[in-house]
Specification:
By secondary structure, the chain is α+β, with helices and mostly antiparallel strands.
Length: about 140
């Protein structure tokens, strides 16, 4: 059995998006194909979630999970797991109106329970930063 690593348990990011919470919610859910076409789920608690992605070596991976929280225009949560992870990671996105649009808080947790948690923590931190930039552009240009 793999031994959990000593690493930060959470990736925590906060960004201010220029769009309203309603537009951000739309981009996160029904408009997601515009910025994260590899991720598929219905925005309802209990819905299956799947992300198919290709790593830098050209190997295809599939992450699966379940939507755990939906509060339209406010919160979205899910658990997901990839082959080789000992346990799932938990993601929660919280949107609050701000003077400039929407403050989006993202927390992904569970890294300290994974044998490869330190590496995954860094990869996910960088990956979420990229995804949130794409989300911002998609929400700002949504009809």
């Amino acid at each position: 059995m793999a031994t959990p690593t000593s690493c930060p348990d959470q990736v925590t990011l906060s960004v201010t998006l220029s769009s309203s919470p309603e537009r951000v919610w739309h981009a996160l859910t029904t408009g997601r194909a515009r910025w994260w076409s590899e991720m598929h789920f219905e925005p309802r608690v209990g819905a299956a979630l799947m992300e198919t992605w290709v790593d830098p070596a050209g190997v295809t991976h599939e992450s699966t999970g379940t939507v755990t929280l939906t509060e339209p225009d406010r919160r979205l949560g899910f658990d997901w797991i990839d082959a080789g992870w000992e346990s799932p990671l938990t993601v929660e996105l919280v949107m609050t109106p701000s003077a400039h649009g929407t403050q989006l808080f993202l927390v992904e947790s569970g890294f300290s329970a994974l044998a490869d948690g330190a590496r995954l923590h860094g990869e996910h931190r960088d990956g979420w930063a990229e995804h949130l930039g794409r989300l911002e552009r998609a929400a700002a240009t949504a009809a």
